[in-house]
Fold each of these.
Amino acid sequence: MNYINLKARAKINLTLDVTGIRDDGYHELKMIMQTVELYDSVYIKKIDKPYVKLKSNLEWLPTDSRNLAYKAAEIIRERYKINKGVFIELRKSIPVAAGLAGGSSNCAAVLYGMNILFGLKISRKKLAEIALELGSDVPYCLMRGTALAEGRGEILTKIAPCPKAWIVLAKPPVGLSTPAVYKAIDSLNIEYHPDTDGIIKAIKNNDIYEISSKLSNVLEEASIPMCPMIGQIKEKLLLSGAIGSLMSGSGPTVYGIFDDIKKAENAINVIKDEFKIRDVILTKIFNA
Ligand code: C5P
């Protein structure tokens, strides 16, 4: 095998709770993660030269060790003493620095792809350990589907697949720094925490309406003051027929859940029109 083509999918958070701060500075999290169909294409090809070469369709995206996909390939080459190199081409469709785990998902795809391409037979457990060295969301991106993520995000419990629904993603045209959002939450008194057990029950009952009524992300309390458009888009999505709406991860992307594609398409027009934003995308819940 000389090359491999993979789909690195985006994720949304159905819930995100912060339950404490750890000694290492990371936060103790409890969140329900869900894969959506939206993906970046990741093409990985063996090359004879002994290095990693990364290319993407976004000319401003770093193609060196600042890119998690590059780092993933380097770490596998080093640890498994691979003499050959790889050429990686990313075709990005997932908005960057958006709370959708695009970079983490590219990284997970490279770990998975290198394992197959070079016949390394790295166990799932070992691959998940390497994934965590690269980022808190990377182990989940290897697993995909509907999952409860705890600890830094790496303690993963698969739950029943979330029922199918249409998802509208809308990203305000600002970058929110993840460390800044987590830092801001430390000085706030979080009064309302997600009902994680309740939403897991709703997922098991296949009840998209109950799920939508329980969407909750404590990081909104920090992000909305930094970017009020997050709150405004949420409101507009609900007024346009979404059955639930939430900010994903540390933002700034907001999503709406729809039970009807016509309403979803109409909401996209409303959001584009009112907020003049480019990244408004129709996708679906994805379960492998
Ligand atoms: O692990 P990763 O590099 O993706 O994390 C990015 C940033 O998100 C961290 O530097 C930290 O500020 C914040 N974070 C956190 N607690 C977590 C995960 C991420 O504070 N469990």
Note: The chain has ten helices and eleven strands.
Amino acid sequence: MKQVYLDTYGCQMNVADTDRMELLLFHSGYIRTGEVKDADLVLINTCSIREKAEQKIYSLARNLKPLKEANPDLILGFTGCLAQQEGERFLEKLPFVDLVIGPDGVEHIVRVVDEVKNKKVSVVRTQFDTDISYKIPELSGETPLNPGSTTFVNIIKGCDKFCTFCVVPFTRGREKSREAEEIEEEVRLLVSRGAREVVLLGQNVNAYGKRGLKRSVPFHELLYRIASIPGLKRLRFTTSHPKDFTRECILAYRDIDILVNHLHLPVQSGNNRILNEMRRMHTIEEYISIIEELKTVVPDMGLSTDIIVGYPGESESEFEDTLALMSKIKFNNSYMFSYSPRPNTPAQDFPDSVPPSVKSARLQRTIELQKKLTLEQGKLFLGQVVDVLVERESYKPGADFRGRNAQYWSVNFTGDRKKISIGDMVKVVVEDATGHALRGRAI
Ligand code: SAH
Ligand code: SF4
Ligand code: F3S
């Protein structure tokens, strides 16, 4: 068999796309290798969400040039969001590259690789697929991929929100949902192969069910349907948007036992003027009311969010509104970013008025605050017994296993290796809380 080296940047959607390419290539005679120097085919699945992500890929690409020079038969390709954004430009900047394909090209990876091989030309494929539905054709037979105890399942692709700062609607195209039956079938298959937790995946999962389906299926209905699949122990989803967060979805948290008590709900800013400028289509008051309703339904709800600091025109007091919101909601965790202008987006043309030094000082303050909140929230678990889904052995000295509790905290714990296996749900008493992780002992 030939060997393919695959490397992934960016979000879970890219991880899922890489897995898909691995599977498709496996069926056409490629086995994955961890050694780039042994590969016949090198594919880098790229991200373009922030300037830094883009710079990282370009410098990686330049570093791969000697490899290609040493072995002209090597096929070197770039896939994913930066590939989509750059298209032909990518080849102009880096003429030694053989293929450039966007996220919608994933299903065509084998054909594009063959074209490069047979015609000895570079290929750029960045057209979006024109099919009105979103199908992931099943591949039967042997697979090199086995799901871990927790695994991701795509339910929707693309994004129609067009937040002013964000490149995703341009790199992943229009929103399209996958038929619920197809999703259910995939979950059943994954459970039969050992998955115990499924994370429903999309840039905007709670917009599920509108475009691309024969009959519209609201997101909460999909949750009930997936939750009824025998053998599934936990259900999560990521990422959702406050604008599409319905009352029915809140009630699903109350009614579905296996839907975990955790929600990642990006807020971006704690200030209404900035939210409006970002075109997030909701207010802070609406965000808080979702959280309050959720907390009446599920008092021990764990919450996390995404935050951007230094959006064009953000004043010091507007930034401080973000800190105030973080303290009010008491997020377990935040993914915090300093704004960077992205190609094609409306915000790139706004005067980027916040100086880099101010952006980084603001970012530092959010990180410090989040650290304090995480520590405080973690300490609330001390002495409590939590349910942990075992994901793997622990790398931490003095711990045997690692998993997560319902609120998405990592838990390293000691336990009897003869009795506990990966995929088990184990009761653990929490004895220590350090930053992002909890420590404990199985009981
Ligand atoms: N679909 C999700 C998030 C997608 S991107 C949502 O709507 O919330 C992940 C995060 O990257 C975003 O939530 C945002 O916080 C951050 N991000 C996106 N574009 C950015 C930019 N231009 N500069 C800095 N951070 C950005
Ligand atoms: Fe980007 Fe907004 Fe879509 Fe999220 S909802 S992917 S931030 S445009
Ligand atoms: Fe990056 Fe594309 Fe995901 S830009 S964050 S890989 S959707």
Note: The chain has a mean pLDDT of 95.
Amino acid sequence: MRSVKTSLTGIKPTNTPHLGNYLGAIRPALKLAETYRSLYFIADYHALTTMRDPAALQESIYDVAATWLAAGLDPNQTILFRQSAVPEVFELSWVLSCLLATGQLERGHSYKDALAKGDVPNAGVFYYPVLMAADILLYDTDVVPVGKDQKQHVELCRDVAQRVNHVFGEDTLVVPEVHVGDAPLVPGIDGEKMSKSRGNGIPLFAPAKKLRKVVMSIKTGSESLEEPKEPEGSTVYQLCKQVSPEAAEAMATELRKGGYGWGHAKQALFEALEAELGPRRDVYQAMRADTPALDRILDQGADRARAIAHKTIGRVRHAVGISATSSADLKKTVRLKPQVG
Ligand code: TYM
């Protein structure tokens, strides 16, 4: 019986993390890290499904690492590492892929979205959820804090873990739970889902002047200053509700009264963001500038992550019948069940 439960999540280094990443994953993950064993990693191999510029990928890896640290991750407590530093993840992903029906991957929303847009997705986009499941299962994860857009991937991970356990023995893999808040996906400045690829993000640690400019560009209604306004449904209010519920409540009261314009609401959102993130801006800049320190933290994290991964992969090899152990030992230790389906 494991006494401490594990929380794990990953961020793809495809750009500098934005407010959606922070509210959807980073902030809840740091809260969980207070009580769970925590492993938070940079999903660099996942980024290869889209990234084609090695220098930009390297820079984004450091951006993500510095973001976690500036947001409050304590590297002595939380294991922060690069996905690529633990190649056992590919070994596990192969085992998982042998237990997944291709139809499950065909239903993956990223793959389906790519097809719907008329793109010809690479095989990495198709296989993406398998690697993500391996990321989670390799570290005996109990809980995965992610934004709503990743829920389907964690559900697929649960399915395949249950199937592995059914076929090879109930104690082979830990079946994780997804941890998503009630809040909807964080909207971007255009009101659509905030996303790195859409370019509608609110930066976390940009200079205050730049941040204010981005906040002031959020799309709003065109009512006059005097008119009372309905906050629900407006992007600026949605964002504020997720950053600071208290500030959002005050904003809603003012908007409904009238004599308070969307410009005032945006200023209130900017101030709420400054209160949450402003004090960490200098920490981000200092961490981001010190790449040797980031490498040290990531390498130390990788050593700790590898130790956990070795145990899991050993257990999996044993369970499936691929192991250096003699067949006599295997018979004693592994409960082989007939394969179904
Ligand atoms: P990525 O890099 O796209 O996003 C990182 C995290 O940010 C969340 N997120 C959002 N949450 C709310 N509103 C938004 N607008 C928003 N945009 C992004 C995402 O849900 C995610 O939690 N596949 C993952 C990376 C990954 C992973 C894993 C995560 C790889 N392996 C294993 C958990 C466990 C991804 O692309 O995240």
Note: DSSP finds 15 helices and five strands in the chain.
